Amino acid sequence: MTKIYNFSAGPAVLPKPVLERAQAEMLDWHGSGMSVMEMSHRGKEFMSILEKAEADLRSLMNIPSNYKVLFLQGGAIAENAMIPLNLLNGKSADYAITGGWSKRSVEDAGAYGTINVVASTEAEQYKHVPDFASWNLNKDAAYLHICTNETMSGVEFDSLPNTNGVPIVADMSSHILSREVDVSQYGVIYGGAQKNIGPAGLCIVIVREDLLGNASPLTPAVFNWKTQAENISMINTPPTYSIYIAGLVFEWLQAQGGVAAIEQVNIAKAKLLYDYIDSTDFYVNHVAVNNRSRMNIPFYLADESLNAEFLKGAEANGLLQLKGHRAVGGMRASIYNAMPIEGVQALVDYMKAFEVSH
């Protein structure tokens, strides 16, 4: 069988050792006689899984003690409603649009209060993060929302604006744990698990404690961060198996040397692919160099009539899920933590061969 490399943007590739361990523990977790799928979420077995997962995540990201970690359902999309419900508190909020997902966040949040778009690159087809000097920030805003890595367009923030104390709320779904982050610079960090953490169904929210307790009275209990924090993310049954797999991924990441070590691997992987794209006119990436994502690399063939043939050949060579998002077209290679550098090299080798033959 051809060696398979999965470049899907999400649900995405998981580390093979994690899958093998989950397979070994599927029927009987640590002598309990139960699969994790069957456990009571309040039983001692699952509680030990949850507690270790949180402790490992806190260690990996150096999360300060005055931040709560929540394991929630609904993915990052649900947070588009939960964020304004928990934080607006009669104020307005600032949002920056740097890609398709931050645009979706604006559209969803608009139902809950006044949303000000302080910067947008939609007219420029999301090729960069706009100069912070041009952002029309409101010093009295409840928060500033950004998406620090846009999965569709491959735009990644390389720094943060100065908000003069307004909390920054960041959707980090597609690059969380891929690079070192100073959590204290943010009021809220959130992300769907299905890219760099685990299977779909889990959303992780890291929220500073002083931002809890401001929810609208219309907020359902399951959407109220303060209520969830007080109940250890168990106001209802949490996504137990997704949390278990996330915990295994955290352990795997620690074994790689932690976030600092995996960041260096990610830099090398991204450089390998970008360097080849930049070396030829056959392929092109439109994103400004200083805002190029390390995780999601969109690229286009100069002759787009070859797209279908390129994808067919890629699949025949074991290079899967390279078709770009339907909103932007072209190709996209998502090279999350679990993608080995050998997979990126295999993609570059195929791209070179395809260029030569065409």
Summary, kept brief:
By secondary structure, the protein is an alpha/beta fold. Helices cover 34% and strands 16% of the residues. It has a seven-stranded mixed sheet with strand order 2-10-9-8-5-3-4. A three-stranded antiparallel sheet has the order 11-12-14, with helices on one face.
Per-chain topology:
Elements: E1 5-6, H1 16-24, H2 44-61, E2 67-72, H3 75-87, E3 92-97, H4 100-109, E4 114-120, E5 144-147, E6 149-150, E7 155-156, E8 168-171, E9 188-192, E10 203-208, H5 225-230, H6 240-255, H7 258-278, E11 283-284, E12 296-301, H8 307-316, E13 319-320, E14 331-334, H9 341-357
Parallel strand pairs: 1-13, 3-4, 3-5, 5-8, 8-9
Antiparallel strand pairs: 2-10, 6-7, 9-10, 11-12, 12-14
Helix pairs in contact: 1-6, 2-6, 3-4, 7-9
